[in-house]
Specification:
2 copies of one chain form a homodimer.
Chain A (H helix, E strand, L loop, with lengths): L11 H9 L4 H9 L5 H8 L3 H13 L3 E5 L5 E5 L1 H4 L2 H14 L10 E3 L11 E2 L5 E2 L4 E3 L9
């Protein structure tokens, strides 16, 4: 199945979707952030077909989001690069939205904490230059130097 | 075409993807955040097929992300609800990642600013309870009370 690529759109959101917008990709990245590295572990965790998993992993390696390394025991490992780690705010933002708007009746699922002191991080939000959290209506677009699509 | 739904996964990220994970949906939401409200304006901005646009908008209305209203001139308008506005950190995080990792050679595209003073917002990141921005490696998982899939 071929999708229309969003790559031609001169928009940073479309560019990002071109890399991570395919079904399963964000769940693969979620598992990578939680420490999964082996093909068989992704497969078992996600219940995903081998060919789809292989295709998604190959794409993430090609984009420099995952690094494919050979483990000393011979199997391949997939490890987040710095570029991949930079996707953390995307995943945290989605997770916090799901926590708030599609809550688990049994309570919060994963919580994310500051490694230094174990305190939960703040809910993801825009932050002003002086550090104030900004509600959605407090943010606006500040000019569009090169922001046209197509 | 039927996709496997992620709804059964007891994971906030999967729950969010179940709402916004379809192709085009985030670009529709981008346009909604930039002020687009009419079907014909989404269609023109995105170059998307009518039936796909109609299906994605209907889903977002059913999920309470967009509110469908009748304009005084008779046409329908699609407006972000508070639940929809809460997706702003997801879109900003994706946009900032695209700005950094797939930059426009001619410079930054859209910039997002604090409405109060016009200053650009900070790059999206996790933020500690005391307000410090946290790099990806400074964040970890703090317990999984109900975090199992399936």
């Amino acid at each position: 199945m071929k999708y229309k690529s969003f790559e031609h759109m001169n928009c940073s959101l479309a560019q990002t979707l071109d890399v991570i917008g395919e079904r399963w990709t964000l769940l693969i990245l979620r598992d990578a952030f939680l420490g999964t590295q082996r093909f068989s572990d992704f497969e078992r965790s996600l219940g995903i077909a081998k060919n789809i998993l292989a295709s998604r992993l190959a794409r993430l390696v090609a984009e420099g989001v995952l690094d494919k390394r050979k483990h000393e025991h011979g199997h391949a490992e997939y490890v987040l690069t710095d570029k991949g780690l930079d996707l953390q705010p995307v995943l945290l933002s989605m997770t916090h939205w799901g926590d708030k708007h599609r809550p688990d009746p049994h309570g919060v699922r994963l919580t994310f904490v500051d490694r230094r002191d174990g305190q939960p991080i703040r809910p993801m939000s825009a932050v002003a230059a002086d550090g104030r959290p900004l509600a959605p209506r407090e943010v606006t677009v500040g000019g569009r130097p090169g922001g046209q699509d197509r």
